[in-house]
Amino acid sequence: MTVPIASEDLFNFFFGIATLGVEERQTRTVNLTIGYEGVNSQDVTVITLSPDVNPEYSVLVVETCDTGRLIATRLYELADVSDASEDAGGEELTVDSVLDGRFNPVSFDYTTARGTQKRITGLTPAYTQPSENHPGKTLFVGFKENEETGSYDRKQFRTDRITNLTQDNA
What is the 3-state secondary structure (H, E, C) of 119-163? Predict the structure, then answer.
């Protein structure tokens, strides 16, 4: 099943793919149209994303699946982008499932170390890692846009304190 990606979510979508290892990136296929290149409804593999302060001006490098041609394009030049990975399909979301090939931003409730609840929204999942400060605990790492600077900040949250995980724009 293909999942269309809204134009305002393109940066987060491609950023998530670009953070994968080489082998994982090669197993991901994205279907898109690039106007100026005459690439219409083409399956491509993401090679890299070079972020810009203005996300729509970020440069995406892809390789066409049929000919192996490398194409560099700005995100604003893309149309009809869709992810060919399977949709979550109503299954309960977990940190592992949002990291498993789905790069839409997520929202969740988080309980801080002091016991207060807060809602985290618009976090683009990246990876998990063991906590250095809390043995046996795992950290969920993602990127969130800094409203003041327009850059993306790395954020981390203990997975055992996350509840009500939802995928934005799913």
Answer: EEEEEEEEEEEECCCCCCCEEEEEEEECCCCCCEEEEEEEHHHEE
